[in-house]
Design brief:
225 residues; Serine Threonine Protein Phosphatase 5, Tetratricopeptide repeat; two-stranded antiparallel ribbon; globular
Length: 225
């Protein structure tokens, strides 16, 4: 994955000459810049958090998945996380500028994942079968993720649950929080980020609607980006 730096240069050039939603693109570009600053400062957790806050399931934000894939692979040494984000890039932007690279990294990631699970030790027949089954389950999960489409923002009525705000799917392995009595997004943001003003990051990571802050439910699981 040594071409990551070259890829980042290419991404910058692409960002310079493309865009159809000025406001959304500007926010996305600022987010990429902020994430890169945090990476340069070795603030990996902060960089991942910023990248994840940019994801909305649209082709425009696919580059955040691509960069996250490299962070998980090169920095965090997490082949499962890397495989997930490269797969998501291909799913949301199959004809994107880095689709070919992402597909290549997918294959490499699968091999790294098997090596990681095997810990480099000789595998017994039983262990090989177990790893094969786990890999098949992972493939099934990734295929299901490919079929997820981002529905349009809505505050409509969910069948059988009047007034409920549709919630985004929680990424596999993502950090979660179970809503307690009296908690608001601001309270939850203060707990995890020590900054209650970052409540909107949690809202955008979990809901399609901007009025979700007033509709939290006791016991509800929220994804904490």
């Amino acid at each position: 994955m040594q071409i990551f730096r070259v890829s980042l240069i290419c991404i910058s050039l692409v960002l310079t000459f493309t865009g159809c939603d000025p406001k959304g693109d500007a926010r996305f570009h600022r987010g990429l810049t902020e994430a890169e600053k945090r990476l340069s400062a070795e603030d990996l957790e902060g960089a991942v958090r910023v990248y994840e806050s940019l994801l909305d399931g649209t082709p425009r934000t696919a580059e955040a998945h691509y960069r996250l894939g490299h962070v998980y692979a090169d920095k965090l040494k997490d082949p499962l996380g890397a495989l997930y984000h490269f797969t998501r890039y291909v799913a949301v932007s199959p004809d994107g500028s880095f689709a070919k690279e992402a597909k290549s990294f997918q294959k490499e990631g699968e091999l790294l994942l098997l090596a990681y699970l095997g810990k480099g030790a000789p595998l017994t027949q039983e262990e090989a079968a177990r790893l094969k089954n786990e890999n098949l389950k992972l493939r099934k999960t990734l295929e299901e993720l490919r079929t997820i489409k981002t529905p349009p923002p809505t505050t409509g009525v969910t069948a059988g649950k009047p007034g409920e705000v549709p919630q985004r799917p929680i990424p596999p392995g993502g950090r979660t929080h179970k809503v307690q009595a009296g908690e608001t997004l601001g309270v939850i943001a203060q707990k995890y980020y020590k900054n209650k003003n970052r409540w909107k990051e949690i809202q955008e990571a979990n809901f399609y609607s901007s009025d979700a802050a007033a509709k939290l439910k006791l016991g509800q699981d929220l994804y904490i980006p």
